[in-house]
């Protein structure tokens, strides 16, 4: 069984994430664009990806954003993900994420 990931896996990233969380608590809630909300198909992935106002199903809850860059907190543990999401077409989103 694989051990759960923690912030220790990316030690250099934690201070940046904590800073982002502090700024978020001052500025308010992170929201994903309205046009992205709904169900999305991803090639090679069985389940539909769901995007809501504040959540990207497999990535977590959005806690901070800047342009195309989003910081997500996993709902089940203390890990964070940095995700860059680009709208290539109204029907196509492209994303890349940190590990």
UniProtKB/TrEMBL annotation:
Q: Which InterPro entries match?
A: DUF7044 (IPR055472)
**GO annotation terms (biological process):** autophagosome-lysosome fusion
Q: List the signal peptide residues.
A: 1-28
Please list the residue ranges annotated as the DUF7044 domain. Answer: 29-98
Q: Which UniProt keywords apply?
A: Signal
* Protein's recorded name: DUF7044 domain-containing protein
